[in-house]
Amino acid sequence: MGGWPASSSRVSQALLLAGCLLAAVLLFKYLSTGISYAPPSVFSQPQKGVTHVLVTGGAGFIGSHATLRLLSDGHRVTIVDNLSRGNLGAVRVLQRLAPAARLQFVEADLGDLPAVERLFARNHFDAVMHFAAVAFVGESVEQPLQYYHNITANTLTLLEAVQRHGVKRIIYSSTCATYGEPDTMPITEDTPQRPINPYGLSKKMAEDMIRDFSKANPDIAFAILRYFNVIGSDPEGRLGEWPRPALRHYGRISGACFDAAMGHIPGLKVMGTNYPTRDGTCIRDYIHVTDLVDAHVAVLPQLQPGVIRTFNVGTGKGYSVREFVDACLKVTGKPIKVVEQAERRPGDYAEVFSDPSKIQRELGWQARFTDLEENLRMAWAWRKEHPSGY
Ligand SMILES: NC(=O)c1ccc[n+]([C@@H]2O[C@H](COP(=O)([O-])OP(=O)(O)OC[C@H]3O[C@@H](n4cnc5c(N)ncnc54)[C@H](O)[C@@H]3O)[C@@H](O)[C@H]2O)c1
């Protein structure tokens, strides 16, 4: 009878045993460390015809609306947000709407250097839209260091990562607060930047850093968009503005109006009635979030290496606080108690509205949502549908 010699059978038994042991060790390692042998993620590879945009602060008001638009335009988006002020609920809405493999969410703080390095090392970004920031004038006066850290220092960290990882297109969210209180209105991009509060100054410092960085890195293309006061919400009602209730006292005027209408706060306080304006209250230029997002989408393909395209994004028309409050009363239809106090809010300025002619001329962008009442109606519709936020 033929057969394996005894010694050869012992060898094959030993080999089988070794194979089983190796498989057991690998299985154990896989289960205990979560190492996956999946192919590289689509987010780590460039793809022809698809722009992968890193949206910092994408869980926040403007960043979430921008993400929605980028996704519907066929782009790929990675949101990075520490959720300090944004809403996971907004990210969930976006995840439900996003086509497969088009959106990922990374919870991380831009001040966390190793986390930022991991983010850039694991992904291939074609562009960055840097929205993430703390953004309340009053808070910046009380806690200036938080603002220099969160806005200026974190922009530095981001630029270092951009340089290390060869990202070539950056759009920076700046603000009309960088102009301070100009001598003449309307504000053009050439109006001298003389910020009068730490929020505006920390943004201007980030802009200055970008200007120097751009000179030294002429292969990178930048846009700096200086937003005026952003209001409204997605016209289709999918997203809205939901700032942290704990931050309400710093709040922006539309949020305060809706909070008062819903009884979360006793009423509306108009702070400052002796400004040198047509009715003594501050004048601001209110830009709809959809128009603002359009400006980002318009500038993205127009970016040029070595150039910083700088634009004001506003409507060109100013409304006083009293006019805003009247519109709010009309839209909500609620008997909101309005208290006027002569004393001004620290760090505030009298009158600010934009001259948007440069962005109209160079990008063909124009604000489409210019009816204040209509814009407030959209935002109020979302708030009524979401009385407790996302
Ligand atoms: N809303 C306005 O009227 C207005 C006007 C001018 C400029 N801006 C600028 O637009 C940008 C977006 O503002 P918004 O109104 O959407 O504010 P927002 O608070 O709704 O969103 C900011 C987002 O950034 C995130 N964030 C903050 N610090 C972070 C950090 N260290 N790491 C990671 N994520 C962080 C927050 O969690 C939040 O989701 C800001 O840069 C702001 O300065 C806003």
From TrEMBL:
So which cofactors does this thing need? NAD(+)
Q: What is its EC number?
A: 5.1.3.-
Write down the superkingdom of origin: Eukaryota
Q: Which Gene3D superfamilies match?
A: NAD(P)-binding Rossmann-like Domain, UDP-galactose 4-epimerase, domain 1
Q: Which SUPFAM superfamilies match?
A: NAD(P)-binding Rossmann-fold domains (SSF51735)
Q: Which UniProt keywords apply?
A: Carbohydrate metabolism, Isomerase, NAD
Q: Mind telling me which CDD domains this protein's record contains?
A: UDP_G4E_1_SDR_e
What is its EC class?
A: isomerase
Q: Any stretches that span the bilayer, and where are they?
A: none
A Gene Ontology biological process noted in the UniProt record is: galactose metabolic process
Record InterPro entries: NAD(P)-bd_dom, NAD(P)-bd_dom_sf, UDP_G4E
Please list the residue ranges annotated as the NAD(P)-binding domain.
Answer: 54-374
- Sample GO molecular function, one term: UDP-glucose 4-epimerase activity
Named in its record, the pathway it takes part in is: Carbohydrate metabolism; galactose metabolism
- Record's family? Belongs to the NAD(P)-dependent epimerase/dehydratase family.
Q: What is this protein called?
A: UDP-glucose 4-epimerase
| Species of the source | Klebsormidium nitens (Green alga)
